[in-house]
Amino acid sequence: MSAVPRSEKSGRPGKAEKSSGRFRRMLDRLSSSQEDLESEELQEDSQASGCTRISECTDRQIVKVTGTLRTVTLRPRAGVPALEAELFDGTAPLDVVWLGRRSIAGIEPGRRLIASGRIAMSHGRRVLFNPKYELRPLGKE
Q1: How much is the pTM?
Q2: Which end of the chain has fewer CB atoms at under 10 Å, N or C?
Q3: Mapping DSSP to helix (H, G, I), strand (E, B) and coil, where does residue 7 land?
């Protein structure tokens, strides 16, 4: 008896290989955590919209990024109000800061948006100050 499967002997992929591939993908999706699945979906969305991945952004680079807002907080900076949000695209987090703002309609946790501007590094984290932004429709989520 040979250790090589019958489909490999003939050089053609067999039906068992195709179904095991589909089965493997389904099993991987079922065994993945919800966070892993959301990260994968966010990465696909970022690539489809033509945006830069946050993990690839470098200091002082002008970028266009997309992702989901994880947190939104009001945190004063030098006595001036500042609305801070953490944007996540499945690869890395990015702090988005609107100086002089206490709130912005539509900026809330769980909301998807596209932001563009110049990246800065602050305390080892990527930050985007006063970006141009576009809220993504709620129906796509």
Answers
A1: 0.70
A2: N
A3: helix
